[in-house]
Design a protein that fits this description.
The protein is α+β, with helices and mostly antiparallel strands and 247 residues long. It contains 6 helices and 9 strands. Strand 1 and strand 2 form a beta hairpin.
Length: 247
């Protein structure tokens, strides 16, 4: 993790956007995506590299980085092609604290930032990883989670008296790099798990300790079981019991 270069990357991207005279909501590429490309490559010539019929977000010395905020299913064709010849790291940005700002379309007026009560969790990546499940155990596949504080802009163009319901989401701007998680082998997923996990636990107990919804906990445990990180050891009533592999 290089906080100094992350801040520089963020500044370089914002400067380029200002030179392009792009207003909020008019950018062809979202700011988080652009910042991470700069952070990962340092040299713009390593960005948007054509490999076969596809373009890689970043390719440095044959190592491909694909930045994806959601809808990992859109990566399937690329991964199937890239992984045969290249190491590929899927980069997933995670919002730590989010500061929301509202934009009035008619005037361009922007409200002061308001901190959201919700906080991001790196474990949310499992909902997306399920969409690329067949590739997770490929020897050329790795994952990078980038945890950042963000500032989000939305237009006051929605429904209701305050015009906030179903309002247009414009862009997110990285503020601070908080942490990075590099998952290169199945055992590296252990760093995402709650330290307080007992020797054996249910999905419900896992969800409570990890502070995630039960459905997400069940998805995570399914994938972790397939990767050999956790093992099903039996049942407690109608619930499966799990333990960390090697316990």
């Amino acid at each position: 993790m290089d906080i100094e270069y992350f801040d520089l990357s963020r500044s370089l991207v914002l400067e380029r956007q200002e030179l392009a005279n792009g207003g909020i909501g008019t950018l062809a590429e979202k700011t988080v995506h652009s910042t991470l490309k700069q952070y990962l490559s340092r040299d713009i010539s390593f960005q948007e590299i054509k490999i076969g019929t596809y373009f890689a977000d970043v390719c440095v010395d044959g190592h491909i980085f694909e930045i994806q905020t959601r809808q990992f299913n859109k990566l399937r064709a690329k991964l199937e092609f890239f992984l045969t010849e290249h190491p590929v790291t899927v980069v997933y940005p995670v919002t730590n604290h989010n500061y929301l700002r509202w934009v009035t379309p008619q005037t361009g007026e922007i409200t002061p930032p308001k901190k959201s009560t919700r906080k991001g969790n790196p474990l949310q990546v499992f909902a997306e990883l399920y969409r690329i499940r067949p590739f997770l155990s490929h020897p050329n596949f790795s994952l990078k989670l980038v945890l950042m504080d963000m500032e989000e802009y939305r237009m006051l163009d929605g429904y209701g008296k305050d015009k906030k319901k179903r309002a247009t989401k414009c862009d997110k701007f990285p503020l601070t790099l908080v942490a990075e998680y590099d998952i290169e082998t199945p055992k590296d997923y252990m760093m995402l798990l709650p330290a307080e996990l007992p020797d054996t636990f249910t999905a419900k107990e896992f969800a409570k300790l990890a502070r995630i919804p039960l459905g997400l906990a069940q998805t995570a445990l399914l994938l972790l079981s397939e990767l050999g990180v956790v093992t099903r050891t039996g049942k407690q009533g109608r619930s499966y019991l799990y333990e960390l592999y090697g316990n």
